[in-house]
Amino acid sequence: MVGRSCGHELADGRRCRATPMRDGPFCFWHTPEREEDAAEARRLGGLRRRRERTVSGAYDFAGLGSIESIRRILEIAVLDALGLENSIARARLLIAGGQGRGEANCQRPASRQMQGDGRPARCRNCGDPRSAPGAAGEVP
Question: Is the pTM of this model over 0.85?
Fold first, then answer.
């Protein structure tokens, strides 16, 4: 089944491929009655992107694509939490941040167990499939 598409014709002659609104032939972006709403959405989207660039630069944050980036966001969250008033929620956040940091630092599993079929279990933190305790090269 082929879905409906917006009836707006783009500058290059192709049709907009967005799904039209239920009550009309055009999508949100091309419905004449929604022109002001679409302009506001575009403006807010641009503000959001500028704000993201500003904040990521201020916090030296490049996304969650690496262990270092994950560590950095955990550090930011914990540092911000340290500045909060003492509360149970703050304590929980600091504990969770510490646990997350430990998991992000995991190089070798803290405890290894055998699975029921005799194969070594993976690390619960990093998924490391190396040998079970006592195997050659195992770090105590």
Answer: no
Q: In whole angstroms, what is the distance from residue 106 CA to residue 127 CA?
A: 10
Q: CB-based contacts of 73: which residues, under 8 Å, 6+ apart?
A: 61, 64
Report whether 121 contacts 113 (CB < 8 A).
yes
Identity (one letter) of the amino acid at 25? P
The full set of domain ranges for the chain reads 8-58, 61-107
pLDDT in tens, 43-63: 887 777 887 778 777 777 777
Separation between Cα atoms, residue 88 and residue 108, nearest integer Å: 32
**Gap between the Cα atoms of 123 and 112, Å rounded:** 7
* Amino acid letter, 122: R
